[in-house]
Design goal:
The structure holds 2 protein chains of 2 kinds. Chain A is mainly α. Chain A has one domain. Chain A has 12 helices and no strands. Chain B is an all-alpha fold. Chain B has one domain. In chain B, helix 3 runs parallel beside helix 7 and helix 7 packs parallel to helix 11. The chains are: A mainly alpha, B mainly alpha.
């Protein structure tokens, strides 16, 4: 019954999401502009690699890597932690809890509705650059190409779940946003957002390889830029699915714990 | 003038006593500061493991730029960001009306509305890094360079402040722009690299459009004794121009402010 009801509500939720994105254009644009770090890193590393390849990375490898990073980041980016903590602080969470749809579905619908707009702004630029300057550094294996989309979807789910979990921490502590900063620090390092993971010092690279962060960003990038054996592909996708299930479960569990202790502010 | 100084001191005291109420945070902040420092240094370490010099910058010199970056960032996160968050909140809730009613300049009132005293840990971290860098270089900076480097640090902080006022002014037009702090942070993040490392378009953008070079690279060059007089003057001039522009835009913005309350 609940599932059917949620499904019926979904088109409306998506429409609301689209309307919100259009209504708060300024905010939306700012969120997109905050993801330009890969372009800066691109500028840096291409000028470093111009003289000679840097640890096996030539100039066009960096171009391909960071443009892929830009695409993945824009498609999978999430701001749900910030939304949840805002709603808890301002008291509008009470209203959301009264609705007969799980808030996670509602937030997720809002995010999904924004994806077409995000692609509209960034993808053309990224695709043109990718084809013009990084074509030789891209993968052409059909199976691998086909797996990019599911991998992106899983990356989106992991990112959303982790940020959802961080957002629910605002139920327990007042300084949840400081945690968000810490998260972002770890994310930029371990997900390959700042640097391709193989360039990291060996010890950190080992940690990064198995951390969930890698599956939020690096894995889809790797699928786009690095040819892989079928076995490795299967392993990566399996691990990614595992992390998606685990983080989703964690987020839902924390949400249940949090709602139980929720005392509405400004009722 | 003394009235404004007194006003700022009062605001500082209030923020400090609020921070003292959460003494345990000090340890958390200290640990976080160390973690952030490691995180900030890592790309540099990676870069200089593969190269001895990039665009004329060897590792210790680039470390000085990072130290400036951390210093300005401490000010950004200690004063600027908390105040900006406060301002956006006030605009949305309509409480900003009361700020405008107060018999003092609104820009000054909001500029130092909130402090996070613990960020001073980061300032000491930055200072430590500079000392370490000069030990690595094996020669201390001359007194003149120290003077100019310090002056340019404050000039960099003021340039940062001007950018912040511009963002604050933008929030009058687009009210739900709470994420401006993130944008400011993202822009400023590029200041950790010496601007010469970038080529072409990026270097022009970072020198003239979003003048992050003015905040870290040029001050660091001054401390290293590499800055020529023309660039030094240009840095001061650029900062001054930014301050004037931000003040003018702030004035225009405040005129078009329509209250959210009532």
């Amino acid at each position: 019954m609940s599932v059917a009801r949620t499904l019926r509500a979904l088109p409306t939720l998506l429409r609301i999401g689209v309307a919100e994105t259009v209504a708060y254009r300024g905010e939306f644009l700012v969120w997109i502009l905050t993801t330009t770090l890969p372009l800066v890193m691109l500028g840096l590393w291409t000028s470093v690699a111009k003289e000679a390849p840097f640890q096996g990375y030539a100039s066009q490898d960096f171009v391909a890597y960071y443009l892929a990073a830009l695409i993945v980041r824009n498609l999978t980016g999430s701001w749900v932690a910030w939304q949840i903590s805002e709603e808890i602080r301002l008291g509008s969470m009470s209203m959301r809890l009264l609705r007969p749809v799980h808030p996670m579905i509602a937030f997720a619908a809002g995010h999904v509705a924004a994806i077409p707009f995000r692609s509209l702004v960034v993808l053309p630029i990224a695709v043109v650059l990718l084809v013009s300057s990084g074509a030789s550094a891209l993968t052409t294996e059909p199976l691998q190409l086909a797996l990019i989309v599911p991998s992106l979807a899983l990356a989106w789910l992991i990112t959303f779940s982790v940020l959802f979990a961080i957002g629910t921490l605002a139920f327990f502590v007042t300084k949840a946003m400081a945690l968000l900063n810490l998260y972002f620090g770890l994310f930029s390092l371990l997900s390959g957002y700042l640097l391709p993971l193989p360039l990291l010092p060996a010890a950190i690279a080992r940690i990064a390889e198995y951390s969930p962060f890698r599956f939020m960003l690096s894995v889809p990038i790797e699928l786009m830029t690095r040819p892989m054996a079928t076995r490795e592909l299967a392993e990566l996708l399996a691990l990614q699915t595992g992390w998606a299930v685990a983080t989703l479960a964690l987020a839902l569990w924390l949400w249940r714990l949090g709602v139980r202790r929720f005392e509405a502010v400004g009722g | 003038m003394t009235r404004y100084l007194r006003l700022m001191l009062v605001q500082l005291r209030i923020s400090a006593s609020a921070a003292m109420a959460y003494r345990a945070d000090f340890i958390v902040e200290g640990v976080m500061a160390l973690a952030w420092m490691a995180l900030t240094l890592l790309p540099l370490i990676v870069l200089y493991r593969g190269r001895t010099a990039v665009a004329g910058w060897d590792a210790p010199s680039a470390l000085v730029v990072i130290a400036y970056f951390m210093g300005v960032r401490a000010v950004l996160e200690g004063i600027v960001s908390p105040s900006l968050v406060g301002l956006v909140e006030q605009i949305r809730s309509g409480a900003f009306d009361y700020v405008l009613l107060k018999p003092a300049d609104a820009q000054l009132l909001i500029s130092a509305a909130r402090f996070e005293p613990w960020k001073i840990v980061d300032l000491f971290g930055a200072l430590g890094l500079v000392i370490y860098a000069f030990v690595q270089r094996g020669e201390p900076p001359s007194a003149l360079d120290v003077g100019l480097g310090t002056a340019l640090f404050f000039s960099g902080v003021l340039a940062m402040y001007a950018l912040w006022i511009l963002c604050a002014a933008a929030s009058f037009w687009v009210v739900r722009l709470d994420n401006l702090t993130y944008l400011l942070g993202a822009i400023f993040d590029t200041a950790r690299w010496p601007v010469q490392v970038f080529r072409g378009l990026w270097r022009i953008v970072f020198t003239f459009v979003i003048p992050v070079a003015v905040m870290t690279t040029f001050p660091a060059m001054a401390l290293l004794g590499r800055l020529d007089a023309a660039t030094a003057l240009g840095t001061f001039g650029g900062t001054l121009a930014l301050l004037v522009i931000s003040r003018v835009i702030w004035k225009i913005a405040i005129r078009s402010y329509t209250s959210a309350s009532s």
